[in-house]
Specification:
alpha+beta; 2 domains; disordered N terminus; disordered C terminus; 9 strands; 12% strand; ABC transporter involved in vitamin B12 uptake, BtuC; two-stranded antiparallel ribbon; five-stranded antiparallel β-sheet; 15 helices; single chain; 451 residues
Length: 451
């Protein structure tokens, strides 16, 4: 067995996450602040005038400021181009990033305190209420459920959840392939990672002085480190003492461990949900027809690039590194691998740590993309990811990736075209069908390994 180090794979693992988050630099302006500033414009212009927003960007004249350039139509003298600059109390992930503190125009200069107070208290609240009412009353013909563009938008919307399920399914598969047991606590490990990322982001936002991409990178690395340690500890404390047991004691132990992790977070952090401000929410239009636009957000692009890179790095790690050779040997025959000098316990510990790291990335994505973190979020997330691993073929890494894509697409398409209340029922019904017709999964080996 070759011991050649996986330098390309290691470089990819080290550089991948910073490179993916560096894409955030392309979002030069806070999109929520920009939208708030655009809502200010009608209050500054005469009624019945048509306003055309030209562009928005950061305002270098002040901190946490955006400037919107627009054109006013309907004047006797012809269209006029103006700008308005909006200053806010915070930026990045700070709690007051949407609190308007000043408004400056190219014609009247800065608004007075009284004007600003009226603008904040009456105008913006009224505009936000009207916008919410319009969004709640979208006519059926605008949704264009049967159109190809709606289908395309549904596929784009499924990208993130497919990535999350795929990462967790790979974590389940890595562990099952090497020890022949399922660790049902991987969902809770993703929850631990989400809470770690949330706490880190809150602390970074309170401290200030750290750029948004760097703050997110640091939060992700902390979450990965914390969850990898948890994964290694689970192998050392739970699975190693039960190795060789012919019963399902290890499986039952992970159920108790999952409950323990849930309750420990509930008792220490509280039962309430924790929320984060949306980041990288700028949308890029792809196509439009009959008034129905198709768009992809910066967050979706970053998640897809990050997960695709992790898949590629994992492939190189398993194929070319010393750990990869050891993992494959233990997955094929653990007893023979031990006779050949491979440290099976160390390989299993590293496998649990790697699976914990993948669960951490999945939890981080859920926390940042959906914005909510709760102590019970890992239960259903973990079971759906396990479903993805079984459907794809548990023990097969490509099968886990395929299963994540299938379960994510099924859930998203069911929600888009059918009754959303039954999407979970559809997912687990698919699991029952696959187990009945093809127990080894779509890409399985034809049997479950006897370990």
């Amino acid at each position: 067995m070759s011991s050649r180090p996986a330098r390309p794979a290691c470089r990819t693992l080290v550089l991948l996450i910073p490179a993916a988050l560096a894409l955030a630099a392309c979002e030069r302006v806070d999109i929520e602040q920009l939208r708030d500033c655009e809502r200010v414009i009608p209050a500054l212009e005469e009624p019945e005038r048509r306003i055309e927003v030209l562009r928005g960007e950061r305002d270098s004249a002040a901190e946490n400021a955006v400037i919107v350039h627009y054109r006013v139509h309907g004047r006797p003298e012809g269209p006029e181009t103006h700008w308005v600059s909006c200053r806010f109390a915070g930026g990045g992930l700070e709690a007051e990033r949407r609190k308007l503190t000043a408004v400056v125009t190219d014609r009247a200069g800065a608004l007075s305190e009284i004007q600003l107070q009226i603008l904040r208290r009456f105008w913006l609240r009224s505009v936000e209420a009207q916008a919410g009412a319009r969004e709640a009353a979208v006519p059926d013909e605008v949704t264009a459920v049967g159109s190809p563009l709606y289908l395309l938008q549904t596929v784009i919307n499924a990208l993130v959840i497919c990535s999350v399920y795929g990462l967790l399914a790979v974590a389940y598969t890595l562990v099952y392939a090497i020890i022949g047991r399922i660790n049902l606590a991987f969902g809770e490990l993703s929850m631990i990672a989400a809470f770690t990322a949330w706490l880190a982001i809150v602390l970074f936002a309170a401290a200030g002085g750290l750029a948004l991409p760097l703050a997110l990178l640091a939060a992700l690395l902390l979450a990965v480190a914390a969850t990898a340690v948890h994964g290694w500890a689970i192998q050392r404390v739970v699975f190693r003492p039960l190795r060789g047991s012919g019963s399902q004691a290890a499986l039952i132990a992970t159920i108790g461990l999952a409950i323990f992790l849930q309750e420990s977070v509930r008792l220490t952090r509280g039962a309430g949900d924790r929320w984060l401000h949306p980041v990288f929410s700028e949308s890029y239009p792809i196509a439009e027809a009959a008034g129905f636009p198709v768009a992809i957000s910066a967050a979706q692009i970053i998640v897809v690039v990050l997960v695709a890179g992790l898949y590629a790095a994992h492939w190189g790690l398993v194929a070319r590194s010393r750990f990869g050779h050891a993992w494959r040997s233990c997955a094929q025959d653990g007893g023979m691998a031990a006779l050949c000098g491979i440290d099976v316990d160390r390989t299993a510990g590293l496998t649990f740590a790697l699976g914990g790291a993948y669960a951490a990335v999945a939890g981080f994505v859920v926390a940042l993309y959906y914005g909510g973190v709760s102590f019970h979020m890992g239960a259903l997330l973990g079971f759906k990811a396990l479903t993805a691993a079984v459907v794809g073929g548990i023990g097969s890494v490509p099968g886990a990736m395929l299963g994540g894509i299938l379960i994510g697409l099924l859930e998203t398409f069911w929600s888009a075209y059918l009754t959303i209340a039954y999407k979970d029922l559809a997912v687990f019904a698919l699991l029952a069908v696959v187990l009945a017709l093809r127990p080894e999964g779509l890409l399985g080996k034809g049997h479950f390994p006897d370990r």
